[in-house]
Amino acid sequence: MSSLRKSTIYVIDDDPDVLGSLRFLLEAEGFETLTFRTAAAALETGVPRHADCFIIDYKMPGMDGLDLASRLHRQDARTPIILITGDPDESISARAAAVGVAYVLRKPHLEENLVAHVRRAMQETETTPRP
């Protein structure tokens, strides 16, 4: 039996169809996936230290994805964050980078490159020396 732990991805999106689709996609690629419909629900978990990557929707009720990303980044700057959005506003990428987001991906074609970006973000984190 392998002692290797599956990478754990947290997906936060208020759309249950998106959550289900991303869970299916990520689990098919071998990731353990935990899903949340609000930023508050994700934060209530205490932001577990075993998260390997966060995938966060930009527009959600209550706290938006950039606010959540900022809080998560302050708690643990090493866990990569990928922001997903259907918003065409190009300034989102610059604002996202300012709060520690590794990548911004546009909906609706997430499946085309999401897994590659998750793997790349986690690999970049592994090769970045700790401060």
Automatic annotation (TrEMBL):
The modification 4-aspartylphosphate is found at D57. PROSITE patterns: RESPONSE_REGULATORY (PS50110). Pfam families: Response_reg (PF00072). Keywords: Phosphoprotein, Transcription, Transcription regulation. One of its GO terms (biological process) is phosphorelay signal transduction system. InterPro entries: Bact_response_regulator (IPR050595), CheY-like_superfamily (IPR011006), Sig_transdc_resp-reg_receiver (IPR001789). It comes from the Bacteria. The keyword NAD does not apply. Residues 8-122 form the Response regulatory domain. PANTHER family: RESPONSE REGULATORY DOMAIN-CONTAINING PROTEIN (PTHR44591:SF3), STRESS RESPONSE REGULATOR PROTEIN 1 (PTHR44591). This is Signal receiver domain protein.
